[in-house]
Design goal:
Layout: H1 3-13, H2 17-31, H3 35-45, E1 55-59, H4 69-86, H5 90-93, E2 95-99, H6 105-118, E3 123-126, H7 132-141, E4 146-150, E5 159-166, H8 176-188, H9 197-202, E6 206-209, H10 211-222, E7 237-240, H11 247-256, E8 262-264, H12 290-299, E9 303-307, E10 314-319, E11 327-329, H13 332-345, E12 352-357, H14 363-371, E13 374-378, H15 382-396, E14 399-405, E15 409-412, H16 421-437, H17 442-453, E16 455-464, H18 467-483, E17 488-489, E18 492-499, E19 513-517, E20 522-527, E21 533-542, H19 550-578
Parallel strand pairs: 2-3, 2-4, 3-6, 7-8, 7-9, 12-13, 12-14
Antiparallel strand pairs: 1-5, 4-5, 9-10, 10-11, 14-15, 16-21, 17-18, 18-19, 19-20, 20-21
Length: 579
């Protein structure tokens, strides 16, 4: 079939008048010989969104390579078929369905519920938008067979997505994801049954959840506190949810814990899928934190906290007179090791585990060793951290203390088997109050860690290549470097190349290359699992002399890091040109 024929077949099945009209107009232009429309159709109809990192994510538009109502129906039909085949009591245990406040999120959540109910599977449907970690929590709290969260996390406004959880409350991993992907392909070739939502509610197949479950989640988050008697009233905090769904629960949790000087950026408090005040609703992106940093300066805040739109990530800024805004952003690694140090210091005896993704700093391993705790590195993606932690806990009876990813994701203890920006906000605020009670700042706490285990200097560089052609170019670039890995980067020898595509170190095969260099330097490169990016991660470790100023150690580390980054980027550019 031609792209036009495939598009006509898709449009005929599309239940959404908006995307149906959009695709019909594109078909008409392509049929008249419009080259741009023809190319657009070829790209949209040339496959379907890959069911990958726990689900799918894409631009809201018509066609199988986009996020839309028909796409959601097909994916849900595949999920339902897989659950019924693999989980004997899936019908009665049901599936939790939550959603954020992005455009069409509520529609997609209701479509998901309607297709699951048509398959005879009970549904726990959130009655309003809420953070992603609440869905992950609800799966285990309700004993559900699985969960779906409609969200595109921190992606731009034109995106939406569909994240899948298994009955253990964690994002799905192989072979489950592959089994669902195959079930989706089979379901897409068949008529899809969709029940009337009101009828399903009347029959008891679809049940609303909301206030009671959120109350239980808030109580469980508050129970994570380790120093609940520390004075919090004197700590001024500035906060933003970046137009996402975090404000209601973060404000509620902080207030209940005694943090009564929290000021939320008013222009970004209300959920708004258009994200009108930010170009890119990711706290890591330039400019995204400008408003809350200005608010912090006006209020004299001692701590700045921010969630991404679905509140599964947490960003932190601390006072710094040398910064133009008066505050400096902490990296995800810095937040992670600070939380790990605080939690390990209060974790008591027995076996304890901290975990992070491979692309996170090696500093966590050094810190864990200093406490006599265990550390595990996993593939990128919190699904790996959560599943590894649960397996370790079951095998050892030990305590999982913290998991984190450098991309601002943190899981405190075993409450949620995914990253959770709500509980992380509470525990970091408590860490700040704990430091203040001891007469030191967060910056001083971090510097003390550097002196204790070494100064780790990191940087990430991303190459963005949109579209199917861009993704293909990224794959060819990875293949070119894999085929001819560098023997040295600049003047530093590469001591070992770890190719995770062939399962090095017993990890599941993944498109990741790791270069271990002399002196503890490290370079990692991988394609993003959710965006058309090739990401490279750089790290050097600098031992700090007993009397050496940290500024001098940082300057040495930054110089080493810049040389490493520039040498690797030159190798990568040459490989991309060859590809």
């Amino acid at each position: 079939m031609s792209s036009i024929d495939r598009a006509r077949a898709w449009a005929a099945r599309d239940p959404d008048p908006e995307t149906q009209a959009e695709l019909s107009a594109l078909i008409e232009r392509a049929a008249r010989g419009d080259a741009a429309a023809s190319a657009d159709l070829d790209e949209r109809m040339g496959g379907r969104l890959e069911f990958g990192t726990a689900g799918i994510r894409g631009v809201l538009a018509a066609g199988p390579q986009r996020m839309n109502q028909l796409q959601v129906r097909e994916v849900t039909a595949g999920l339902a078929a897989y659950l019924l085949a693999e989980v004997p009591d899936a019908r009665t245990r049901g599936v939790v369905v939550g959603h954020d406040a992005r455009r069409k999120s509520r529609l997609f959540a209701e479509e998901t519920a309607a297709v699951l109910a048509a398959a005879g599977i009970a549904v726990w449907l959130a009655d309003d938008h809420w953070p992603t970690p609440v869905t992950a929590y609800a799966v285990r709290a309700l004993g559900a067979a699985g969960g779906v969260m409609v969200t595109a996390s921190h992606n731009p406004p034109e995106y939406n997505g569909y994240k899948v959880y298994w009955g253990n409350g964690a994002q799905i991993i192989p072979p489950i994801d592959g089994g669902i992907a195959r079930a989706i392909e089979a379901a897409a070739a068949q008529p899809i049954a969709v029940t009337d939502l009101a009828a399903a509610r009347a029959a008891g197949l679809v049940r609303s959840i909301g206030a009671d479950l959120e109350r239980d989640y808030v109580a469980a988050v508050l129970a994570l506190q380790v120093e609940p008697t520390i004075d919090r009233a004197a700590l001024p905090i500035a906060y933003t949810p970046l137009h996402g769904v975090g404000a209601a629960l973060v404000e509620r949790v902080l207030a209940a814990a005694g943090f009564d000087r929290v000021t939320t950026e008013p222009g970004q408090r209300a959920p708004d899928g258009a994200f009108p005040t930010v170009a890119f609703p990711n706290p890591e992106e330039k400019g995204a934190m400008d408003r809350v940093l200005a608010l912090a300066a006006r209020e004299g805040a001692a701590l700045v906290l921010a969630n991404d739109p679905d509140a599964d990530r947490l960003a932190v800024a601390i006072p710094d007179a040398a910064a133009a805004s008066g505050y400096r952003m902490l990296t995800g690694d810095q937040v992670g090791v600070l939380l790990a140090d605080y939690l390990l210091a209060h974790a008591g005896d027995g076996r304890r585990l901290v975990a992070c993704s491979l692309v996170s700093s090696q500093m966590l391993g050094f810190l864990a060793a200093a406490y006599g705790a265990e550390n595990k590195e996993t593939l990128t993606g919190f699904k790996w951290i959560a599943n590894e932690a649960m397996a370790w806990t079951a095998a050892t009876g030990g305590r999982f203390v913290l998991g984190y990813e450098e991309a601002l994701g943190y899981s405190v203890g075993e409450l949620v088997a995914d990253k959770d920006g709500v509980s992380a906000a509470l525990l970091f605020a408590e860490l700040a109050a704990w430091n203040r009670a001891r007469g030191r700042s967060i910056a001083e706490h971090l510097d003390e860690l550097y002196r204790r285990v070494g100064l780790f200097v990191t940087e990430q560089v991303s190459i963005t290549l949109p579209g199917a052609d861009g993704i293909a170019t990224i794959k060819r670039g990875m293949a070119a470097v894999r085929a001819t890995p560098p023997a040295a980067l600049g003047a530093v020898a590469v001591e070992r190349v770890r190719d995770l595509a062939r399962g090095d170190d017993g990890l599941p095969p993944s498109d990741v290359l790791i270069f271990a260099l002399a002196g503890g330097r490290r370079v990692i490169m991988r394609p993003s699992g959710t965006e058309p990016k090739l990401k490279s991660y750089y790290e050097v470790r600098v031992a700090v002399g007993a009397d050496e100023p940290l500024a001098a150690a940082r300057a040495r580390g930054q110089a080493e890091l810049a040389a490493l980054r520039d040498a690797h980027q030159a190798v990568l550019r040459a490989a991309m040109e060859r590809a």
